[in-house]
Design goal:
1017 residues; 30 strands; elongated
């Protein structure tokens, strides 16, 4: 058998709400057994120490806390449907989600894949309680019950297309499910499999059965292989593992807990009784698993036994193990059983043992087996080559193999052999490339600062999970980069997007905690995008330069450094020196035109290329003057090398021109200046940046005369500090020489939308050729017109690609109604801009709906997967049965939402009359409560609330029936009938009539209002 990797784990068992707590319980030999909770049944009513007929001999067992809590809103399940669902379905949904997250994959990324779901389950007590009162059977109860639905529910909500099935082989169910999942993986039926087991005890029925069969321990505790063993103690729980073929897990860089080397399943056939174990069948299933794994018995270090603590069961299991291990010449096989800690979890027993073995191999220690100190001498373990784990067993370095047995009450036996993960799989060094990555090659990556991301379906959920992550990170010593990278991969896909750059784990934990408690800060760090951002890149022009611009970013960001080095290499043959060295040295020569223009080009090319490599799609481009050169490279007008040659020549030729020119910013429209400009042949319009933002350029003396006239008119003016009169008639002496070079280089039609500041509009299939670039030198910069046209195109974000933001401020003054909601982003927001500032720009785009190529944001050594704290589901909503178990089978089903929708770590139950546990009631609006004045809207809201089980005030016109309220086709049919009952005068309509109008409650109200007027039944 080819090896199968366990890459994700989640579980809830008695006394252990998560895998970490489960491991802690095992390592301290903890006891998860307690009195039967009153919420389940009144144990005293069914207790008889002597095991009278119809009674159990115990009042204790292993129970999980809060089995009634379910975050139905997270899964878009209506309260009515959630209340009808078997708690086992609810527990599995949340457990499977967390296990997938633990594997380092956002569950939404599995949508549409061939991922398989295999669930082991034994009990169906919810159906026994709720499907026997036939008058109350609903469509929701039908789909909320049944073994198949436990697996199908996971596949449905995660949109998984692979095999989906439930297995009932009694106590071996979940290990058989693992066996089937491994076979499906190895047969190519699926590439990922979720194998799970679940058991929730809702009635005392099985406890009574165990008692009547002579199998029940009076104290409710299994004591595996102990001299005190006196029977089974019931337990419950849920566990899920994510499985992959080992080679796939390694290729995708997923850390591996342990490797399944071989599994086998067989049957007792005809034995001493259908519930009696068969030694020879157990021997054979062990041998078959060893053969399939290619393992000799002597290679197995320890085995997690079935170990129920019944005298007969323990004896037969020991003899079966001894048949294979009695001849061991080395150390005896170490044996233990988790049932001593949590009881016999029945359908979940196999997954409980599998997770224990996987964690033991992962942590390199096998916990002691509870009750092992007082060994049963009749078992003669030493003669069988066995020993009980009376103390934790430290595992040696290198490969270690552990076994796991799970035997069904009806005779279906399963055994598995697991091995410690290979070092390269336990802590993978080579991460897998992101899906869809089409970057520019294998160059350096990394922003210099990581960005921790987290998503959630609501702000309350976001706050809750921020606090959980803060607490978990504070306890870790992991570098912040791998934590951030792992969050980018596993914590995505929900409506609210949170992003926080952080330099170390201490800062990150503090920032997460502060955001969780500060609403204003959370509003700045989280977004709720409705779509993908449409990004316009604005390339800054001359005048924005300064010594050492972007030097800090260069030193901190390997990604930016790579592209600035590319630009420097392209420019060096034409500049006679290194632009990069000029910038890093802080040389004031950056203000000389011959250096300014190539330096700006290099910086802007490097910023734009970095953004593109990060997955920022430039939908629109605009460059101010020399900024158009970097924009043209991005639009593939010409390659980097040719653009570098042209911009270097432009700067050099301009610097050779005589000095003495100047530029004058005037607070007036161009129309008021035309007469003055026409009167001065050596003055031209340098730029029109807005309706009242004009720049004149030309001879200094002539500009002085214009300035005097404008001063007398009360017009504000400002001299710009420039070396030459750019975009003026004084540029004419260089045009011929520049045109010759431009003819050699040429230029094509841009492949991205470019809003030309030469034309003042979008270029429509027009080449940016030699003629264009020559005209570009003397023509006015029509930024105002070009920017106005760009804003009309509807960008959501203006990202300024330059050494500091200039154009976004100018654009702000131009915004019309069309551009009022545009956001501005600056990767280099100030002269001290660094890797953190660039990371904040990426974070802001993520909050707005962008899905960056996160691999590009981190150097390779930081792209190491880390297991983050799993998603913290809300426990505010409770769904349970109201009627005591011993009452008539009909049970009222209800939902109790927490009115404040707040998290309650230890929710309080309402005491029921006569102390019979929690009373859960359905939320209903009082009959006299004031309703909306619109009768159609009132009828629709009431019908929607009734069908979905919501309070009317939870339903608004903006509520989406499918996405927000969890409606399905069955509920839509019922909704139609309820609406027709409430509205008189409504024309006959079919479900097909309604379907196109069901996007939101408001849409439905509008449609019905047109059909019925205002008459109400």
């Amino acid at each position: 058998m080819r090896p199968v990797a366990i890459v994700g784990i989640d579980c809830r068992f008695p006394g252990a709400p998560d895998p970490g707590a489960y491991w802690d319980l095992l390592m301290r030999s903890g006891d998860g057994v307690e009195k039967v909770p009153g919420q389940r049944w009144n144990a005293r009513d069914f207790h008889s120490p002597t095991g009278e007929e119809g009674h159990s001999n115990t009042t204790e067992g292993g129970f999980i806390s809060d089995p009634d809590a379910f975050d139905n809103e997270f899964f878009t399940v209506s309260p009515r449907e959630a209340a009808a669902m078997d708690p086992q379905q609810r527990l599995l949904l949340q457990c499977a989600w967390r296990a997938v997250e633990d594997s380092g994959v956002a569950p939404q990324r599995l949508a549409g894949t061939d991922t398989g779901v295999f669930v082991g389950i034994m009990g169906n007590e919810w159906a026994q309680l709720h499907m026997t009162d036939y008058a109350r059977v609903t469509a929701q109860l039908g789909s909320g019950n049944g073994y198949c639905m436990t697996a199908n529910r996971i596949s449905y909500h995660l949109d998984l297309k692979g095999p989906s099935l439930a297995v009932d082989t009694a106590c071996s169910s979940s290990l058989v499910a693992v066996h089937l999942a491994c076979n499906a993986l190895l047969a190519g039926e699926c590439d990922t499999a979720i194998a799970a087991g679940v058991n929730v005890a809702l009635t005392p029925a099985l406890g009574i059965f165990y008692t009547q069969a002579g199998l029940s321990a009076p104290d409710g505790r299994c004591k595996p292989f102990s001299a005190d063993a006196d029977g089974i103690g019931r337990g419950e729980g849920v566990g899920a593992v994510v499985l992959r073929r080992l080679e796939d897990a390694v290729a995708d860089g997923q850390p591996v807990y342990a490797v399944i080397r071989g599994t086998a399943v067989n049957q007792d056939g005809r034995s001493n009784g259908i519930t009696a174990p068969n030694r020879w069948s157990q021997q054979e299933v062990l041998a078959a698993a060893y053969r399939r794994a290619g393992v000799e018995p002597s290679e197995v270090t320890f085995t997690e036994a079935h170990g129920t603590g019944t005298v007969l069961g323990d004896m037969i299991e020991v003899k079966a193990l001894g048949h294979l291990h009695s001849g061991r010449s080395g150390r005896p096989l170490a044996v233990g059983s988790v049932k001593g800690n949590i009881g016999h979890t029945e359908g979940a027993a196999g997954i409980a043992g599998l997770i224990k073995v996987a964690l033991s191999l992962h942590h390199k220690v096998v916990p002691a087996s509870r009750f092992a100190v007082k060994e049963n001498p009749a078992l003669k373990l030493a003669q069988q080559g066995l020993r009980l784990l009376k103390a934790p067993l430290r595992l040696r370095s290198g490969p270690t193999i552990g076994g796991l047995s799970s035997f069904g009450m009806g005779g279906t036996n399963a055994h598995a052999l697991l091995e410690s993960a290979p070092p390269h799989a336990a802590r993978p060094e080579a991460p897998y490339p992101e899906s869809g990555h089409t970057g520019q090659g294998g160059g350096a990556t990394g922003l210099g600062t990581g960005v921790f991301t987290l998503t959630a379906p609501s702000l309350d959920a976001l706050r809750r999970n921020l606090m959980v992550q803060a607490d978990a990170i504070q306890r870790r010593r992991t570098p912040v980069g791998p934590l951030c990278w792992s969050s980018n991969r596993a914590k995505t896909g929900h409506r609210y997007r949170f992003a926080l750059p952080a330099a170390d784990t201490g800062e990150l934990a503090a920032g997460l905690r502060e955001a969780a408690t500060d609403d204003d800060l959370l509003a700045r760090l989280a977004g709720q995008p409705t779509g993908k951002p449409q990004v316009a890149l604005l390339f800054t022009g001359q005048g924005s330069q300064y010594p050492a611009m972007t030097a800090r970013l260069y030193r901190q960001s390997p990604l930016y450094r790579r592209f600035l080095n590319e630009a420097d290499a392209a420019l060096a043959p034409h500049t006679g020196g290194s632009v990069r060295d000029l910038l890093l040295s802080g040389d004031e020569a950056v203000h000389r035109t011959g250096w300014t223009q190539p330096a700006l080009f290099a910086v802007e090319y490097a910023l734009a290329a970095s953004l593109t490599e990060l997955g920022v799609p430039p939908a629109l481009l605009l460059g101010h003057s020399v900024g158009e050169y970097a924009a043209a490279v991005l639009a593939e007008v010409f390659p980097l090398e040719q653009a570098a040659r042209l911009i270097a020549a432009r700067g050099a030729l301009m610097e050779q021109l005589p000095e003495g020119g100047g530029m004058l910013a005037v607070r007036a429209p161009l129309t008021e200046l035309t007469e003055l400009v026409d009167a001065e042949p050596l003055v031209g319009v340098g730029a029109v940046n807005g309706p009242r933002a004009t720049v004149l350029s030309g001879d200094a003396a002539a500009l002085g005369r214009i300035e005097d006239v404008l001063g007398r008119r009360g017009v504000r003016t400002r001299r710009l500090e420039v070396s030459h009169a750019f975009h003026s008639p004084l540029m004419e002496p260089m045009l011929d020489r520049f045109a010759e070079l431009a003819d050699e280089i040429g230029g094509g039609v841009p492949k991205l939308p470019v809003y030309s500041t030469v034309r003042g509009r979008l270029l429509e299939a027009e080449p940016m050729d030699a003629k264009y670039w020559t005209e570009h030198i003397s023509a006015p910069v029509l930024f105002g017109d070009a920017m106005a046209r760009l804003l009309e195109a509807g960008p959501t974000h203006l990202v300024e690609v330059g050494p500091r933001p200039v154009l976004t401020g100018m654009a702000r003054a131009l915004r019309s109604a069309a551009g009022a909601g545009v956001h501005t982003v600056a990767p280099v927001p100030h002269e001290d801009g660094d890797g953190r500032a660039f990371a904040e720009a990426v974070a802001e785009l993520f909050r707005s709906g962008l899905d960056p190529r996160w691999d590009t944001a981190y150097p390779e050594e930081e792209r190491l997967p880390q297991r983050l704290a799993p998603y913290a589901f809300s426990d505010a909503h409770r769904f349970w049965t109201r009627t005591p178990v011993r009452a008539v089978p009909a049970a009222d089903i209800g939902v109790v939402p927490d009115p404040a929708h707040t998290v309650r770590p230890h929710p309080q139950e309402q005491p029921a009359p006569n102390g019979r546990g929690a009373v859960l009631t359905a939320v209903r609006t009082p009959a006299g409560e004031e309703q909306t004045a619109d009768p159609v809207a009132r009828a629709v809201v009431e019908a929607v609330a009734e069908v979905g089980g919501y309070a009317p005030d939870e339903v608004s016109p903006l509520s989406l029936l499918y996405e927000d309220l969890g409606f399905d086709s069955v509920m839509v049919m019922e909704l139609k009938d309820r609406i027709q009952e409430r509205l008189s005068g409504l024309e006959a309509m079919s479900v097909q009539d309604l379907l196109p109008r069901l996007s939101s409650v408001g849409d439905l109200v509008g449609y019905l209002r047109d059909r019925v007027g205002s008459a109400v039944a």
